[in-house]
Amino acid sequence: MADQLEVAVLGTGFIGAAMARNLCRTGHAVRVWNRTRAKAEPLAADGARITDDAADAVRGADVVLTTLFDGPAVHETMAAAAPGLRPGTVWLQVSTVSPAELPPLAELAAAHGLVLLDSPVLGTRGPAEQGKLVVLVAGPEGALETVASVLDAVGQRTVRVGDDAASGAATRLKLVCNSWVLALTHGTAEALALADGLGVDPRGFLDAVAGGGLDCGYLRVKSAAILDDDYTPSFALTTAAKDARLIVAAGEAAGVRLDVAEAGAGRFARAQEQGHGAKDMAATYFASFDA
After folding, report:
1. Mean pLDDT by 10-residue block, N- to C-terminus, for the chain (291 residues)?
2. CATH number where 127 lies
3. Could you give the dihedral angle defined by the CA atoms of residues 61, 63, 66 and 67, in that order, rounded to the nearest 10 degrees?
4. Residues 93, 66: contact at Cβ < 8 Å?
5. Structural domain total, the chain
């Protein structure tokens, strides 16, 4: 059983809800808040205490996790939580945000005496539910020791990428990783769309590449979603579209042309316009066809 810590989870989407459940399961005292309370309420059955506002959730917490949609949502929520924050609390900032948003978040942390860890994760709904995320962390070593039981509860591996959260080192690595994930998803969707257009059996394509250098797990997972017409979200297209915009903007800021990422962002935008935003990001498949 892990050392019991008081943990506040702000945001109960796929990742936040899974983290909260795994923290409850491993003996932590968990309080959760979500903008829409009804989405958080199922966690009460797992032992989490549901709160009506972010300040109540963080009051007395040893650790605060933010698992929200984007940087503005993180900043707004933590500012609203300020009356309940206490100096010395470790803030695990899990949400995928822009590297440019880390310094303002670090300033907010410093203003309230918090110890900020830039800690985005790799993994979708399944790995999150199984406690098998990969956590990328930038922040002071001592803080990592404090939250070791939390990291063990939510992830199978922690990758430390620096000791300065404000540098955004972990967030920058997350965007690089996500650029690859999104490219694989678009590539899978386009290959199957082309197969459809050319009258090729898509399963013949999958058989042709099976077991070789062209094969990979993501090809299999996203192909299955498309071929089975099952777009139950493990990584929602709306969230993928947001991440794609962050990746393109980060590339522009660094003077790097990302033609594939920019085109992919366009595919996500088109699929959203077609009404597929709430589906899994494999629904980029539909962007290859007229609505």
Report:
1. 82 97 98 97 98 97 98 98 97 98 97 98 96 98 96 98 96 98 98 98 98 97 98 98 98 98 98 98 97 69
2. 3.40.50.720
3. -110
4. yes
5. 2
